[in-house]
Amino acid sequence: MVKLRLKRCGRKQRAVYRIVAIDVRSRREGRDLRKVGFYDPIKNQIDLNVPAILYFLEKGAQPTETVQDIFKKAEIFKELHFNQTKSN
Length: 88
Hints:
By secondary structure, the protein is an alpha+beta fold. Helices cover 35% and strands 38% of the residues. The protein has a 5-stranded mixed sheet with strand order 4-3-2-1-5.
């Protein structure tokens, strides 16, 4: 099973996160399948690769709670719903 979750980067006391698609059995800093975004909680900066995120969500990847909140802010689920209704 694949999850979309945060991978910690940056220095001490200055964390930034990559949003990655990763196998459930991997550890937090383990090898990821693909980098799909970036999140800086200090600057509140979000950078997302929307086509890659939609691809993994359509294939059944589950976002963690934090990543799901980030996606809600960026309205990714509206695009996913739009793509599903468009293809039907």
